[in-house]
Specification:
Helix content: 40-55%
Distance between the termini: 6 Å
Strand content: under 5%
Largest sheet: 3 strands, antiparallel
Radius of gyration: 21 Å
Number of helices: 12
Structural class: mainly alpha
Low-confidence stretches: 1-46, 316-321
Shape: globular
Number of strands: 5
């Protein structure tokens, strides 16, 4: 019977976390499952991307130190981004007085989540392009491939029922199924969450201020006018918030201009640019151009463009038996 055990990197994170009170989410499997020296005798499904629950900023800094997470090295391109996924922001992050420390911790918490969510979209895009190229060569998609394609179209709001599986459908999907620039995602998370200080970020893992219209789906804003029904959508984890944000920009009609700007960059072989795509977010906030200018200022002042080429370190998983 096969057994699974993690390589030293992930094992180190979990073993470290098990020694610091409050670092492990009690809903996750016991840390013993991650032992490198003594893999479990029975087959165990190891959650390679299990989220970490850190209570305080000090705890998070211990994790960053032990995993070699260094934003300066990542900016220089000399380090991969350790796959450290926080379930929630440290509860005292927003109240930290040291601005530089707060920013370092905030970007260290959000960057791996953005890369992971983008990777999922990138894999879908690669698969989509492969199917498109086969279709253009005259090949028929297999039923399971056609089913995947139609489900993808439905999830992105593209009406494909009864449509021909041809260039038109693939073009519509490729406009939507694509990554969001890391710099833009980091800037919006900082602005929308107040660097992690907002009530929505602390109590609902909501980094981007996305709205919902049923009370149980989120947290009601205190400044909500009489008669208004919206809430700020809450999430079980930070990753849920990031994934939802990326899907929202990729599917909502209000952000078509962002998608067209991105497609133009792709067509000319240019890299994704958060500064350019920010111009397609006039509808994200009521203040319109002022909001776009704010995002561009955050990107520039914090040199967030340095992270556009960041690569997520993959946790190593070995299979034996």
């Amino acid at each position: 019977m096969p057994s699974f055990h993690m390589a030293a990197f992930v094992g180190g994170i979990i073993l470290l976390a098990s020694q610091v009170p409050g670092l492990i989410d009690s809903t996750q499997p016991a840390p013993a499952s991650f032992s490198v020296e003594k893999p479990p005798a029975e087959s165990v499904v190891v959650p390679a991307n299990a989220p970490l629950d850190v209570a305080k900023a000090d705890d998070f800094e211990v994790v960053l130190q032990e995993t070699g997470f260094d934003l300066n090295d990542i900016r220089r391109g000399s380090d991969l981004v350790p796959a450290v996924y926080l379930a929630s922001l440290p509860e005292d992050l927003g109240s930290l007085d040291q601005v530089k420390r707060k920013k370092q911790l905030f970007f260290s918490a959000v960057l791996p989540l953005v890369l992971r969510a983008n990777e999922k979209v990138a894999r879908e895009r690669v698969k989509l392009i492969r199917f498109r190229d086969r279709a253009l060569d005259g090949a028929q998609l297999r039923p399971v491939e056609r089913e995947w394609l139609l489900e993808l179209a439905d999830s992105y709001g593209v009406d494909a029922e009864g449509a021909e599986i041809g260039p038109g459908l693939f073009a519509k999907l490729l406009l939507k199924v694509d990554e969001i620039p890391v710099s833009l995602a980091l800037a919006q998370a900082a602005v929308e969450s107040g660097w992690g200080a907002s009530r929505f970020a602390r109590n609902g893992n909501a980094l981007f201020g996305q709205r919902a219209w049923t009370e149980k789906a989120g947290i009601a804003p205190k400044e909500r006018a009489s008669g208004e029904k919206h809430v700020v959508r809450k999430y079980d984890s930070l990753l849920g918030s990031v994934a939802s944000y990326i899907h929202n920009l990729n599917s909502h009609p209000s952000y078509r201009d962002l998608r067209l700007r991105r497609a133009s960059l792709r067509a000319t072989g240019r890299a994704l640019d958060g500064n350019v795509l920010a111009g397609g977010l006039l509808s994200y906030a009521e203040i319109g151009q002022e909001y776009v200018d704010m995002l561009r200022l955050v990107i520039a002042k914090n040199r967030l463009g340095d992270f556009e080429g960041a690569i997520l370190e993959r946790p190593l998983v070995t299979v034996s038996g």
